[in-house]
Amino acid sequence: MLSRSGRPLAQMIFGPIAKVCVRLGISANAVTIAGTALVIAFALILFPLGHPVAASLLIGVVVIFDSLDGQIARLTRTASPWGAFLDSTMDRLADAAIFAGILVWIFRYQVGAAQGLMNWMLVGGLGALAAGLTTSYARARAEAVGYEANVGLSERADRLVISLAASLLAGFATSGAGSTASWGAWILLLALWYLFIAGYFTVAQRVIAVYRQAWPADADRGTAPRTESSQPEQR
């Protein structure tokens, strides 16, 4: 939801920055790769070292500029299927790194252990990671077979804002010894489980959306909606 509502604002804010990048000769693909590299580094270094506040803030700064590469591509008229593929692939790597970093931090520093919440956090975090990747795959696969699946309760922007905000607050509640105040542990737990549940709810929404698009066309041909057996995936 946030990605759709925030797009006009992002274009207004980062349009001038994109123009500067164009004048400096910085390509959209370079911005995509650099942003992903920074997110992965911050997530897999700072979270495991016990610096969730710094990790969340620095990743948040990079994520704010997520739409910059697309604006550069439009300004330079270099938007292409390759650029879209690269951007989507880099997003998946960055998302996985963020959740992996959070999970390592939770496990290594026993976040929420004093309240008996750590194991539930780990389950919620793993579920949120799997749900996020499946959500993105569902949309990509739908578009690959000619349908649209850009609907859903929890999109990438929602996942990033909620996970980083919760990690930031939990980090503020963490003492130097690694123990976390009750309110911080509960915020992180609820955020991860919300992303877990909302993610799979979004997958269901996208499956239904594609089914509704596929059924009329296939019904006209007198066949059932296509399945993997009739439309093999190219790997």
Description:
By secondary structure, the protein is mainly α. The protein has 2 domains: 8-109, Four Helix Bundle (Hemerythrin (Met), subunit A); 114-213, Up-down Bundle (Four Helix Bundle (Hemerythrin (Met), subunit A)). 74% of the residues lie in helices and 0% in strands. Helix 6 runs antiparallel to helix 7 (118-144) and helix 7 (118-144) packs parallel to helix 9. The chain is flat. Residues 229-235 have low confidence and may be disordered.
Question: Helix content range of the residues, please?
Answer: over 70%
**Count of DSSP-assigned helices:** 9
Average predicted confidence as pLDDT: 86
CATH class of the largest domain: Mainly Alpha
Termini separation (Å)?
A: 30 Å
- Beta-strand residue fraction: under 5%
Helices and strands: which structural class? mainly alpha
Anisotropy-based shape = flat
Q: Write down the CATH topology of the largest domain.
A: Four Helix Bundle (Hemerythrin (Met), subunit A)
N-to-C SSE series? HHHHHHHHH
Count of separate structural domains = 2
- From the 3D coordinates, which CATH architecture of the largest domain would you assign? Up-down Bundle
Sheet bearing the most strands, described? none
Catalogue the unreliable spans.
Answer: 229-235
At the fourth level of CATH, the homologous superfamily of the largest domain is CDP-alcohol phosphotransferase transmembrane (TM) domain
